[in-house]
Design goal:
heterodimer; A: seven-stranded mixed sheet; B: mainly beta; four-stranded antiparallel sheet; about 50% strand
Chain lengths: ~120, ~110
């Protein structure tokens, strides 16, 4: 069964850091670009970051650029998001989402269940 | 950034009736070299992650009921649910994957009248 399982969410103080992970299984992880998408409480979807299958091309939303770092380990079928200098408006459920192809210009055809991040003092 | 504008914000439709959602992009998402519209539609039920329904503006994903259809090109797109079923109650989002940042519409909530 193909699945994505996120972990690493939690409560963090403003200015703090958190590292999210996404474990992939049931498909050849190294063949596909991957993404992080977040959803603030009661709000819509916001794309956060993407990484191509090889890791050669990385993109970020302006709202997280310079604070978040996406990475992947194709030997471990794992996607990560290092989040530093967190702010209150980073509070959201963070979803790991698979692109349907190796590049970033494709739809997101599989999503994890999400991991919740709350930034609050 | 490409702005995706959905309408309406919400709609209530009777069981078995048609639901129509529109999505307009602030610039064309049609790539001329392959004549593909880089536009997807997602369904999100309460407490669940989004699910891809339609890609390339009109290509239904495997397993998606044929009552869901997508149409449009360039900047104007439509998601149609013919014969609404109870399990279709959800929020529907359009998304462009033509340019970075990938942007989503704000969502349309579909309910049963």
């Amino acid at each position: 069964e193909m699945q994505l399982v996120e972990s690493g969410g939690g409560l963090v103080l403003p200015g703090g850091s958190l590292r999210l992970s996404c474990a992939a299984s049931g498909f050849t992880f190294s063949n596909y670009a991957m993404n992080w998408v977040r959803q603030a409480p009661g709000k819509g979807l916001e794309w956060v970051s993407s990484i191509t299958n090889s890791g050669g091309i990385i993109k970020y939303a302006d709202s997280v650029k310079g604070r978040f770092t996406i990475s992947r380990d194709n030997s471990k079928d794992t996607l990560s998001l290092q989040m530093d200098n967190l702010r209150g408006d980073d509070t959201a459920v963070y979803y790991c989402a698979k692109s349907r192809s190796e590049n970033e210009y494709d739809a997101f055809d599989m999503w994890g269940q999400g991991t919740s991040v709350t930034v609050s003092s | 950034d490409i702005v995706m504008t959905q309408s309406p914000d919400s709609l209530a439709v009777s069981l078995g009736e048609r639901a129509t959602i529109t999505c307009k992009s602030s610039q064309s998402v049609l790539y001329s070299s392959n004549n593909k519209n880089y536009l997807g539609w997602y369904q999100q039920k309460p407490g669940q992650p989004p699910k891809l329904l339609i890609s390339w503006a009109s290509a239904r994903e495997s397993g998606v009921p044929d009552r869901f259809s997508g149409s449009g090109s360039g900047t104007d797109f439509t998601l149609t649910i013919t014969s609404l079923q109870a399990e279709d109650v959800a929020v529907y989002y359009c998304q462009q994957y033509y340019a970075t940042p990938r942007t989503f519409g704000h969502g349309t909530k579909v309910e049963i009248k």
